[in-house]
């Protein structure tokens, strides 16, 4: 018996688009990552929307937008409603990534693909796991176990092990890093010997990495030369992933008095920098053994930075004295502070721009990596600015009108509600304000319409109450926030907000608009790519494949050339290789001659089920396979959005005509242990004991023994006891 396994590549196949795959194990559909590129490709979302309501679980590998960027949109706008599994750091840092992404976009354009509420709603659905903590699926996924294993690359990074009980073990491992780093251990993929299916990426198949010492020296030299020449250094980093490695490394360099860096400034600039560092401080157990030991021994937290100043806006950064090194998000330089600083600093030949990762093709960072500096580039410059002059007056006039309309509606609703709540008096009586009111119409029990007040208009504010009395307003009891008096560190100025982002430079209550201009910039600053991606390179991938020896390999995400090279290496390691194209579904089932068939109602209604072990029931089927035309869709898949291509014919099992049903020998289904049967006999007050591997019952008159072929044989004289024992023995089996 084996499972039917299919993989549908929504994105991230034979190219560098973000990873997003639907893995089907029998009826269970699991979404493996849901990354979104820097330009928010809508084609990818349209493809994914078709499958949203069929997804039973989501597995997230890393906290960056490349692996979970589409999650807020899927939950907030597409109605994705299923458990989402991730490690604790992926949950926390993923939120930081998405907050920063939203704020960076909002600061330069009217961004409406998702809101911060969508981010919160999406992350509320996440089931947080620790490494090696297995979780068993229920319902359709009964028998499937999910286990997160360490992957390196980013804090909380995960290799997912998906196991179907007694059958398949599927490993989903993309972007992993086997090398130990300053703040992370490497992955231990080679421990997973001979998986039946490995899903991995070919992104780095032909990439050769520099040695760590060479890379670090290159960074150090670049920074020192630039700072000594009076220039500033912009290092484009992500929000809460690889930035931890760089921040930790640079702060250590600054602590070394001989480095000559103490005279210069070091800053981390993103919208959530304080929160990122706070979370990093609380997640030391997810980091490298070296950091763990130093924390446990000397109790010094490696992310208690002495020299790295945390900034959340350009205004705060401007207070940091120059020359300075700034770690700014985002790595692609398409939005965020890294783009703003690039626009400011790229014209000065004394400055230096350091790019730390190869982002998607078409982004500014990738363009600079491939073509370098010392040239003119044309950029779209988008900014959010305050409204001024006539625009501001027009905006204020509209707002005033809106507020007046709102006030008018509130007054009307207040009047109507107060009328219904006040006692209604019959006949000529009193109005609301103890004044006699002349009846204008025929008296009746119900009030016909709203009356004009016989006095100057006055709206009486009714006290809102619930069943316990007056409603308490929390804002009446809030203590006014006071700023701390100590001004020794930037961190003290920030109040810790776990679930909110810091305000952008322009407060939200000030009216703003977005402008866009095309500008040609001259890049005079030096542009350098220094690899801090933290991924295994081609040579390492080859060795890992040789050690793992997987039976089947699915290669995803990587150029055609990289994919072909890794495919050859996987085949030489003895694996069957599958390469899906984007939008394709491939069948990676172990057994080649295995098919799914539907049982017809006529067949099911005629089956005679016997209770087996546990909750299972078994029946003997005499049927023939026929191909039927598919007229209506399956009830499960029959949603409007489902447009999956199905073949015209579906295989079904039809009952055989009675005259064609061949007889069959009675079959006993179970694997009985004689020791268990002995306990059952004892419960029924039938004495029994083992002797020479035979279970003797009823004073050695009846023997129950196991045959070499595994069958159980009952021997003895025909008697009342014999039939009792036989009946008890039959009860242990499902008989069909």
Please summarize what this structure is.
The protein is an alpha/beta fold and 736 residues long.
Overview of the molecule:
It is found in: Nucleus. Belongs to the metallo-beta-lactamase superfamily. RNA-metabolizing metallo-beta-lactamase-like family. CPSF2/YSH1 subfamily. The structure is a single chain. The protein folds into 4 domains: 5-208 and 532-587, Ribonuclease Z/Hydroxyacylglutathione hydrolase-like (Metallo-beta-lactamase, Chain A); 213-387 and 502-529, Rossmann fold, CATH 3.40.50.10890; 598-635 and 646-660, no CATH class; 668-735, TATA-Binding Protein (2-Layer Sandwich). The chain contains 19 helices and 35 strands. The two termini are 19 Å apart. Mean pLDDT is 84; it is low at 421-432, 482-505 and 632-647. Helix 4 (88-106) runs antiparallel to helix 5 and helix 15 packs parallel to helix 16. The protein is an alpha/beta fold and 736 residues long.
What general form does the structure show? globular
What is the C-level CATH assignment of the largest domain? Answer: Alpha Beta
> How many β-strand stretches?
35
- The CATH topology of the largest domain comes to Metallo-beta-lactamase, Chain A
Q: Averaging pLDDT over every residue, what do you get?
A: 84
> How many individual helices?
19
Pick out the low-confidence regions.
Answer: 421-432, 482-505, 632-647
**What structural class do the secondary elements suggest?**
alpha/beta
Radius of gyration, in Å, reads 35 Å
CA-CA gap between termini: 19 Å
Beta-strand level of the residues, as a percent range? 15-25%
Q: Under the CATH scheme, which architecture of the largest domain would be assigned?
A: 4-Layer Sandwich
Strand arrangement, largest sheet? 6-5-4-3-2-1-24
Total domain count? 4
């Amino acid at each position: 018996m084996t499972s039917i396994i299919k993989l549908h590549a929504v994105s991230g196949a034979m190219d560098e688009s973000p990873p997003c795959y639907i893995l089907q194990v029998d009826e269970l559909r699991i979404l493996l990552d849901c990354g979104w590129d820097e330009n928010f490709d809508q084609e990818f979302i349209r493809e994914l929307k078709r499958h949203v309501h069929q997804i039973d679980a989501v597995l997230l590998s890393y906290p960056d937008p490349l692996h979970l960027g589409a999650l807020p949109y899927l939950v907030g706008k597409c109605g994705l409603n299923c458990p989402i599994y991730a490690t604790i750091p992926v949950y926390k840092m993923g939120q930081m990534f998405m907050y920063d992404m939203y704020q960076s976009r909002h600061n330069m354009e009217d961004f409406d693909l998702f809101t911060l509420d969508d981010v919160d709603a999406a992350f509320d659905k996440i089931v947080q796991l620790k490494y090696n903590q297995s979780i068993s699926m229920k319902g359709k996924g009964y028998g499937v176990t999910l286990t997160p294993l360490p992957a390196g690359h980013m804090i909380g990074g995960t290799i997912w092990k998906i196991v179907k009980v007694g059958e398949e073990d599927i490993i989903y491992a993309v972007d992993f890093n086997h090398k130990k780093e300053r703040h992370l251990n490497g992955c231990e993929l080679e421990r997973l010997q001979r998986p039946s299916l490995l899903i991995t990426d070919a992104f780095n198949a032909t990439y050769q990495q520099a040695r760590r010492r060479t890379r670090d020296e290159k960074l150090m030299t670049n920074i020192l030369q630039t700072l000594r020449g009076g220039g500033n250094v912009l290092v484009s980093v992500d929000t809460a992933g690889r930035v931890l490695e760089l921040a930790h490394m640079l702060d250590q360099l600054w602590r070394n008095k001989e480095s000559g860096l103490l005279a210069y400034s070091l800053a981390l600039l993103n919208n959530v920098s304080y929160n990122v560092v706070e979370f990093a401080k609380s997640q030391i157990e997810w980091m490298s053994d070296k950091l763990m030991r130093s924390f446990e021994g000397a109790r010094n937290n490696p992310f208690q930075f002495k020299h790295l100043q945390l900034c959340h806006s350009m205004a705060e950064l401007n207070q940091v004295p120059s020359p300075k090194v700034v770690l700014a998000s985002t790595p692609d330089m398409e939005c965020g502070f890294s783009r703003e600083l690039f626009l400011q600093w790229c014209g000065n030949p004394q400055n230096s721009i350091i790019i730390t990762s190869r982002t998607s093709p078409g982004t500014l960072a990738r363009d600079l990596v491939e073509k370098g500096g010392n040239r003119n580039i044309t950029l779209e410059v988008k900014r959010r600015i305050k409204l001024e002059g006539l625009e501001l007056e027009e905006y204020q006039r509209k707002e005033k009108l809106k507020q007046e309309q709102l006030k008018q509606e509130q007054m009307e609703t207040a009047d109507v509600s107060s009328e219904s709540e006040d006692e209604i008096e019959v006949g000529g009586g009193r109005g609301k304000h103890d004044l006699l009111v002349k009846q204008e119409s025929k008296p009746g029990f119900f009030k016909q319409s709203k009356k004009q007040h016989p006095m100057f208009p006055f709206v009486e504010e009714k006290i809102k109450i619930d069943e316990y009395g007056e409603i308490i307003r929390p804002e009446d009891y809030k203590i006014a926030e006071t700023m701390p008096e100590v001004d020794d560190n930037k961190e003290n100025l920030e109040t810790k907000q776990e679930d909110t982002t810091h305000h952008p430079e322009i407060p939200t209550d000030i009216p703003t608009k977005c402008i866009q201009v095309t500008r040609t910039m001259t890049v005079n600053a030096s542009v350098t790519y220094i690899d801090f991606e933290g991924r295994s390179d081609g040579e390492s991938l080859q060795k890992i494949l040789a050690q793992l020896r997987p039976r089947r390999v699915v290669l995803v995400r990587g150029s055609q050339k990289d994919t072909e090279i890794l495919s050859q290496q996987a085949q030489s390691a003895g694996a069957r290789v599958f390469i899906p194209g984007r939008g394709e579904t491939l069948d990676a089932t172990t057994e080649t001659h295995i098919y799914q068939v539907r049982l017809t109602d006529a067949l099911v209604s005629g089956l005679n089920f016997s209770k087996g072990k546990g909750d299972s029931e078994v029946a003997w089927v005499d049927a023939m396979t026929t191909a039927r035309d598919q007229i209506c869709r399956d009830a499960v898949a029959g949603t409007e959005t489902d447009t999956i291509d199905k073949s015209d014919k579906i295989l079904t099992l039809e009952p055989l005509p009675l005259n064609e049903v061949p007889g069959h020998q009675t079959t006993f289904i179970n694997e009985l242990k004689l020791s268990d049967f002995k306990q059952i006999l004892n419960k029924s007050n039938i004495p029994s004991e083992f002797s020479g591997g035979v279970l003797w019952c009823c004073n050695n008159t009846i023997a129950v023994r196991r045959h070499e072929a595994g069958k159980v044989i009952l021997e003895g004289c025909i008697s009342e006891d014999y039939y009792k024992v036989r009946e008890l023995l039959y009860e242990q089996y499902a008989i069909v």
